[in-house]
Amino acid sequence: MASKFKGRLLPFFLLLPTFVILTVFLYYPQIETFILSTYQVAFFGLRKTFVGIGNYLSLFQSPDYLYSVMVSLIFSGGVLLLSMSGGLGLALLLNKKIKGARIYRMALIWPYALSPAVAGLIWLYIFSPNSGVVNYALGTLFNIQPNWIGNPTLALLLVIFTAAWKQLGYNIVFYLAALQNVPGQVLEAATIDGANAFQRFWRVTFTLISPTTFFLVITDLVYVFFETFGMIDIMTAGGPVNATNIMIYRLYQDGFRYFETGLASAESAILFVMMVILTWIQFRIQRKWVYYA
Fold it and tell me: Which residues are within 8 A (CB) of 219 and not within 5 positions of it... i.e. 6 or more apart?
């Protein structure tokens, strides 16, 4: 027999702590951010002047801000491509019966336990132009030592690779769990029907793990746009020449370096709306490619 609440108010009473926490730490700050984005705020908030959508117009008319949006899209696309394809590929290998599989799994998953700042510091030392092991090897073998941090293109590629490496373990865990739940009978039936290895993967395995892929696309997008600030700050500080100045880092610069609080609030609102739109698009198109058995 299904249990029932004895009073109509009891469910709301049990949910009250959650509503209070969400209101205090999520809804209220977000509403205040939207309100503050309509003001031009003087140094340390000593004076506020209502400007309406003036901050938004300033941002969309700023070539530097539009460039940071473009960099963010390139950054997010690169990280998604590398972390998800790499995570799926390694999960497929780890799903095979091989000796020492548990050791390999632990070794590949542990980077996710690192903070983005620590991950950035590790790869900054590895690719340091002067003392990094990569440049030492390249100089010894090929007599070349690229300036990974000073070159705009190389710096962007480096932070994309580092961010993807940091998220790789998270994707491996979920993909490995999804692969272990793929029914073996379905794959055997596909083999009997004459499907080759690629056809079995694309038409059977990938279809059955599509809900996991959809989930990882959403979570990886949140990670790329909001959780890579520490990595960028440690490795490049948005440089060189704004080549790695993604939206979340530009928001930090305007809000905490230049004290343009109203402008930074507008940037926060734009980033929030942008994530909502991207998530909405994903939920709309997932009906065409996500299969729920």
Answer: 170
The tokens of 290 are what?
């996500």
Token pair 């980077």: residue: 111
Name the pTM for this structure.
Answer: 0.88
35-289 carries CATH number 1.10.3720.10: yes
Instruction: Please provide residue 41's backbone torsions phi and psi, each rounded to the nearest 5 degrees.
Output: -105, 130
> For 243-289, how does the pLDDT look when each residue is reduced to its tens digit (9 = 90+)?
999 999 999 999 888 888 899 999 999 999 998 898 898 888 887 77
- Spatial separation of the C-alpha atoms in residues 153 and 146, rounded to whole Å: 11
CA distances, 159 to each of 107, 212, 249 (Å): 21, 25, 13
Strand-strand pairing, 48-50 and 39-41: antiparallel
Q: Is 196 helix (H, G, I), strand (E, B) or coil?
A: coil
Give residue 277's identity as a one-letter amino acid code: I
Angle between helices 152-179 and 116-126 (to 10 degrees): 130
In degrees, rounded to 5, the angle at the alpha carbon of residue 203 between the alpha carbons of residues 200 and 209 is 95
In DSSP terms, which residues pair with 50 in a beta bridge?
Answer: 39
Q: Which of 91, 125, 80 is nearest to 216 (CA)?
A: 80
Q: In the numeric block, which tokens belong to residue 189?
A: 């039936």
For 269-289, letters b (16+ CB in 10 Å) and e give bbbeeeeeebeeeeeeebeee
Q: Domain segments of the chain: what residues?
A: 35-289
Check: CB of residue 264 under 8 Å from CB of residue 270.
Answer: no
